[in-house]
């Protein structure tokens, strides 16, 4: 009996390891990766969108919102999965006329006032540049994604993603020269992966 128990103790870890190796590649390789986005001077870049390869169908859940307050869109950059509804509440005392002429996500929300809101469904992956037909200085961007993993950098220029598998990751910022850059990312990393973006002069303060 002792010998049988001893054999079970030795075999179970081996069987578990073999089962893990037999998992599909994406499942076996999934892990957490932190990205650190900086400009050419090494300063952190906020509002950079980092996303894994396209072609997935990310779940659409939660509330997505782009407010109008103090004659500014907030947030400056919003990232949403394809098919998401975005609410545009007006918190200003003046009326706004929100629109986008971007291909695939064109819309127009005609004049509406304080404490009113309108919503738009964004179906097409890509970039939607948002403006106000009354206040030209109001500019923002919505990045619509069809990636399994995506996120936006914080004030420290960092974002952590659960990467489904090693491969190309795209980094995008509306104020970056060229806007998009691709980097190779592992399925998991102990230290942050640094990515440098060349930003446009006098880029948006956000």
Explain what you see.
This protein is mainly beta and 206 residues long. The chain folds into 2 domains: 29-56 and 148-206, Immunoglobulins (Immunoglobulin-like), CATH 2.60.40; 59-146, Cupredoxins -  blue copper proteins (Immunoglobulin-like), CATH 2.60.40. The chain has 2 helices and 17 strands. The chain has a 5-stranded mixed β-sheet with strand order 6-12-11-8-9, with no helix packed on it. The chain has a 4-stranded antiparallel β-sheet with strand order 13-2-15-16, with no helix packed on it. Strand 11 and strand 12 form a beta hairpin.
Question: What is the secondary structure topology, with strand pairs?
Answer:
Elements: H1 2-21, H2 25-29, E1 31-38, E2 49-51, E3 64-65, E4 67-69, E5 72-74, E6 77-81, E7 84-89, E8 96-100, E9 107-112, E10 117-122, E11 126-132, E12 139-145, E13 150-152, E14 158-163, E15 167-172, E16 180-185, E17 193-196
Parallel strand pairs: 1-17, 3-7, 6-12
Antiparallel strand pairs: 1-14, 2-13, 2-15, 4-5, 7-10, 8-9, 8-11, 11-12, 15-16
Q: What distance lies between the first and last C-alpha atoms, to the nearest angstrom?
A: 69 Å
Give the overall form: globular
The number of distinct helices, counting runs of at least 4 residues, comes to: 2
Care to count the β-strands?
A: 17
CATH structural architecture of the largest domain: Sandwich
| Percentage beta strand | 35-45%
CATH uppermost class of the largest domain: Mainly Beta
Q: What integer value in Å does the Rg equal?
A: 22 Å
Alpha-beta classification: mainly beta
CATH fold-level assignment of the largest domain: Immunoglobulin-like
Spans of at least 5 consecutive residues with low confidence: 1-29
Strand order of the largest sheet: 6-12-11-8-9
Characterize the largest beta sheet: strand count, sense, and whether it forms a barrel: 5 strands, mixed
Order of helices and strands: HHEEEEEEEEEEEEEEEEE
